[in-house]
Prior knowledge:
This protein is mainly beta. The protein has one helix spanning 2-14; strands at residues 28-35, 42-50, 55-60, 67-76, 79-84, 90-98, 101-106, 109-115. The protein contains 1 helix and 8 strands.
Amino acid sequence: MKQLLIILGCFLAMSCNSQKQGDDRLIGKWDGSLKDSKTGGPIEKIILEFTKDGKFLQHSGEGKMQNTVESTYEAQDGKIITVDKETHEKAEGKYAVKNDTLTITFEGMENKYIKLK
């Protein structure tokens, strides 16, 4: 279940705001939490990180319990496409950036992330 939520978070993050050539608004770290797919309630802290060279990192948990999932991403036409580094699984979702808030929608679930300074 936890791995499923981590994967869901990755897919959601993939739905973020970047262009094929990169979007500076997306680059950086975004703070949020994973949501339970049934209740919609927050269950675990997550940091999404987008780099200029096309890497997408998802850091979930804290301290010694932190787990990082690495993917690549590409954004096109309001959608972000990610490919998991280990499984090569491809995911696509919608995104929007407004001020310092990133909203990602994946499989009908919407998550919001705040950009870390």
